[in-house]
Write a structure and sequence with these properties.
Number of strands: 0
Number of helices: 11
Distance between the termini: 50 Å
Oligomer: single chain
Helix content: over 70%
Shape: globular
Length: 200
């Protein structure tokens, strides 16, 4: 497992623009082979929910040092179950961060494949897809100019997570549903995404 973690971090530290969908799948499959898979262990699922709640659902970005420490602890612990899901999630985060830092557009094929893998894997292991995966899936598809698929992802996610502000925002942007717009303005006027997309 240590070799695979090292391989992943080598991949993460390499040039973000060379990351491809095929490479993501290859690294994911290698880590998955070494991962202890357990659908009853919700540690990684709960971490994805925590990340979502603090970074996307909250009015302000509230990533705490405790969350970062938790991620680092799980990554460095060889007994962490379902680590392949966390590793792929971090790979995605790294790609988005690196491209944003230098003002480049992310590789949408990489984004879409990564979200496809995460969606399928979380559904298979936990029986449910975390809200953050729906949000990122929308963003990946939208980035790849797959507007209809992005819209479908947002609507599907909102059916499962009806209180999700990011999914309400993306569904509204895709559908122009006035009911959603009014809900966002009335109930979430201070949410960072409502402000970012200037929903009034």
């Amino acid at each position: 497992m240590k070799k695979l973690v090292f391989a992943l971090f080598f991949f993460l530290s390499s040039n973000a623009f060379s990351q491809t969908a095929a490479a993501a799948k290859e690294v994911f499959e290698k880590i998955k082979k070494e991962s202890k898979i357990d659908g009853n262990d919700k540690t990684i699922y709960n971490l994805l929910d925590e990340f979502y709640n603090k970074n996307l659902q909250a009015d302000n970005d509230e990533m705490t040092p405790e969350t970062v420490e938790k991620i680092q602890s799980l990554v460095s612990d060889p007994t962490t179950k379902n680590i392949h899901i966390l590793m792929l999630f971090l790979l995605y985060q790294q790609h988005i961060s690196q491209t944003a830092t230098v003002g480049k557009k992310p590789n949408s094929e990489f984004q879409i494949e990564t979200m496809r893998l995460l969606e399928n894997e979380t559904k298979e292991i936990y029986g449910k897809v975390p809200a953050i995966i729906y949000v990122y899936k929308y963003e990946a598809l939208d980035s790849g100019d797959k507007k209809d698929e992005a819209k479908t992802a947002a609507i599907q996610g909102l059916k499962e997570y009806s209180d999700s502000v990011p999914l309400k925002v993306y569904t509204y942007l895709s559908t122009k549903d006035e009911t959603l717009k009014n809900d966002l303005i009335k109930n979430h006027p201070n949410h960072w995404m409502v402000k970012q997309f200037d929903i009034k």
